[in-house]
Amino acid sequence: MTASLWLGRLLAYRQLTVGLVVIAALVLLGLVGPLFVDVSGAKVGSAIPDLTPSREHPLGTDTVGRDLLSVIIVGTPLTLTIGLIAGVIGLGIGSVFGFIGGYYGGVADNVLHGAADVFLTVPGLLILVVIASATKGAVNVQTEALVVSALAWMWPTRTIRSQVLTMRERGYIQVARFSGTSGARIIVEEMMPNLLPYLAASFVGAVATAILASIGLEALGLGPQNQPTLGMTIYWGLYYTTVMRGLVWWWLPPILIIVLIFVGLFSISAGLDRIMNPRLRSTA
Amino acid sequence: MSAGVLEVKDLRVYYHTSHGTVKAVDGVSFSLAQNERLGLVGESGSGKSTTGLAILRLIKPPGKIEQGEVRLDGIDVLGLSEAEMRRIRLGALALVAQGAMNSLNPVMRVGDQITDALVDHGVRASAREYADRIGQLFERVGLRREIANRFPHELSGGMKQRVCIALAISLRPKVIVADEPTSALDVVVQRQVMDTLADVQTDLGAAVILIGHDMGLMAQFVDRLGVMYAGELVEVSPMEDVYAEPLHPYTRLLIACLPSLEQKGVFTGIPGLPPSLMSPPPGCPFHPRCPHVMERCRIERPVLRQVQSDRWVACHLFGGEAGAE
Amino acid sequence: MTALLEARQLTKVFGGGLLNRRRTQALIDFSLRVDTDPPSITAIVGESGSGKTTLARLLLGLIAPTRGEVAYLGKTFQSMSGEERRAFGRDVQVIFQDPYDAYNPFYKVDHVLAKPIKNFRLAASRRHGLQLIEEALEAVGLRPEDTLGRYPHQLSGGQRQRIMVARALLPKPRLIIADEPVSMVDASLRATILGSLRKLNREFGISLLYITHDLTTAYQISQNIIVLYGGSVAEAGDVELVVQQPKHPYTQLLIGSIPSPNPRHRWTARRSPTDAGALAATNGSCRFVARCPYAMPRCHELHPPFFQTDEHRVVACYLHETAQSTSVGAMDEVFVR
Asked: Is 80 exceeded by the pLDDT of residue B306?
């Protein structure tokens, strides 16, 4: 009975499962790949440049002598890491702002959610370009992640705040107040556990925004010059006119991986949506 | 029992959920005479609302009408096609649902919503004739004609509910099912709405099934009362008899625990809890809480039997020779 | 002696600001002293729009009054120190209407009982705390072994509400404000909850403010009753007098509209004029004037004061301004003790 119940659950949350599987596979690519492929090949000058795909270099090599398969295996986790760092920062700030503003209201709320609203209207990529060009020399994956985080906290703030506003009026919150529970404890003990799917969805959203922004920045050449993130690989591909030269094995794989990342993230997000909104669940 | 305008036989409605099958209505039979007011009273989980919805074939998955017969003036309602059923709904069988006033379209004037329903049911008339007809309907339910031009949010709860009654009687149905029509209303407004319902019913010669949990409301409105417990009808009798001499132990306890304005007294409730509808106890569903439980009650489920003229009970205390169901 | 809780000329008006033109007078000039010595049960009865919910929220400090104040042991909420606030939380407890919404679905029901013990430091040890919980559950007629360790959705509405009563009982409050505690509970389970509440009053000496629209249960449980209409008190006093011989036209209408379960006793109230929608909120008039069959010109001009028609009853209606009756300040002076 339990086995079929689990299977039933998995099937019902197909989208969520598919999304998680896809992202897990990509993470695995980065973790397990080095065991099968010599990733020192991702370094500049480690191979003969401009080779077409062969058994030794399944994806060929680029113009500065990097084995492109190694580049993909090294680059995917780098791009995912950017997403992860920015996601954590975005969710962290968003939670603090959203919970405090939503629960306590008043001046704090006006300031915090006003800030979020204002920043949402600012053309983010433009700001990032400005920041990135100003710090061009010192950019690595971590600093890029920090820069991109500037875009990742506004939606979580709004989502969490609006959930908190609704939840604040629920009976059990009132009961907790009359049982002497302090505001901070109410937020952490009473509200957060019920908001886990929303927190997860905000996290996924922040990750997606961050990755997209980072690829945008990198494709413009503002990313880390020495680290082969997916966006940088695309940049180098554009720089070396690979599209016109027909070097499909160079410009296509990073794009495919990016597509997979977003399909995975989207499926997770849609799957979480179904959990949060029971009306979307199909009936037996 | 002579055939009435509505005949329900052995109706069963089960909900098939991933946790098991919930037997919401498990073998309900009754007959409704023309012009009669029948009450279906019960607490939460008794199956009374489900019965009303089943008669109108408004049960949605995972619920399903497992078996049973519903005959309206001889027509087999459960066997009709969906198109035919749509014509019957409102045309012959009307519903005033719980919270109906909240189901009014907020962006449409209330008069237009009734016109809509009439058009849908194939009534062809000119705009003036519609306006006239709606006006008459509104007056019938005690509302001024110009209310037809208002939007739902401009009306009070009682007025909205009367609009719903106007809608329900717009095609002169034979049977009106009113499911907790006054649950969200104040006591004073409740009286007004029930008086309105009584007036239109007498006027139309329609039969009414009033579903609810308020015994007081039943006593003031219905001729005959059906008491439901755990998906079954445990007693069906004329209202006066039910109050003066309740037969089924559940009915007796239910009447005993009603607070009154005549006497400040003891607080009696019914000990125990209503049974799970997924795994009801064997035999009589009330036996775990019954003060007169016998060995037989634990094994054999009692059948609704006629024990006096027009009095039916499902209880082994009244077992023995029985009339036809 | 300072009253435990006192409402002084409490007025609450919603809206009427820059953005919201429509002003609603939810509660007008309401004064009440809730004394807990001797412990009393007072019912506040009113329908929707009567102001009873607003009153409950004001008394609990959930919203602030427009005019007037609520004083706990003589201190208003704004002027209370943290220590005094905590004392308020121990002395005044609440039971809400909705036994479904009152529970956090994430936790077992034990959570809602453990919190007051922890926050108010009621127990010296975990074992002591558990003992207090068990005693509270048994006091409301529940068996701890059937209740603890369960999730809210595994219990019935009646059981959940009884747990809420037990929760309110834990800090040994002097006053419990119960806002429609049984209206969402089945009829057969209501009696046990009401019985528990009355037991709390008789055996534990806890005063009760029972707020409801259901006059019948109010009659069953309370000694004194306040009938609210449109934000003002229509009639107040000994519950036997008010219910058996109502004097205010609204109280008469209310009682006459209650459907008696005895089919021989038909609805007695004459049909009142169909409600015209919003209350005729002319400032200063009697609130019931639009629906009152006995309305006189002076009723439109000025809201009637209280007239004491019996030793234990006041009515706010000009029909009773006879030679014997006098105006009375605060209505609780006529209450039965």
From this structure: yes
| Cα B52 from Cα B40, distance rounded (Å) | 9
Residue B159's contacts (CB-CB under 8 Å, 6 or more residues apart) are: B143, B147, C274, C275, C277
Mutation test of the interface with chain A: which of B14, B17, B18, choosing the one with the most A Cβ atoms within 10 A? Answer: B18
pLDDT band at B2 (very low <50, low <70, confident <90, very high): low
What does the DSSP assignment read for B6-43? EEEEEEEEEEEETTEEEEEEEEEEEEE-TT-EEEEE--
Chain B residues 296-325 within an 8 A CB cutoff of chain C: none
Rounded to an integer, the average pLDDT of C136-144 is: 90
Q: What is the CATH number of the domain that holds A37?
A: 1.10.3720.10
The answer to whether position A184 is within a domain reads yes
Q: What is the pLDDT of residues B58-67, one digit of tens each?
A: 998 889 999 9
CB atoms B18 and A8 under 8 Å:
yes
Task: Choose which CATH entry (1.10.3300.10, 3.40.800.20, 1.10.645.10, 3.40.50.300) describes domain B6-318.
Answer: 3.40.50.300
**Within a domain: residue A21?**
no
- Both structure tokens of B231: 């998906």
Question: Chain C within 8 Å of A178 (Cβ-Cβ)?
Answer: yes
Alpha helices, DSSP H only, in chain A?
2-12, 14-36, 68-104, 106-121, 124-134, 141-149, 154-168, 171-178, 183-185, 196-219, 230-239, 242-245, 248-276
| Mean pLDDT, range C24-40, rounded to an integer | 88
Nearest to B287 by CA among B299, B272, B297, B278: B297
Domain coordinates of chain B in residue numbers? 6-318
Domain contains A11 = no
Which of these ranges, B153-157, C26-30, C328-332, has the smallest mean pLDDT?
A: C328-332
pLDDT single digits (tens) C262-304: 888 877 655 655 554 444 556 778 888 888 888 888 888 888 8
Search chain A and give the residue with CA nearest C99. Answer: A171
Tell whether A19 is covered by a domain. Answer: no
Interface test with B, best of C186, C245, C265, C272 (most B CBs within 10 A): C186
Give the total number of structural domains in chain A: 1
CB contact under 8 A, C103 and A190: no
A166: domain range?
28-280
Q: Hey, is B229 helix, strand or coil? A: strand
pLDDT of residue C277: 42
Question: pLDDT tens for residues C12-21?
Answer: 988 766 666 6
pTM: 0.83
Confidence of residue A284 (pLDDT cuts 50, 70, 90): very low
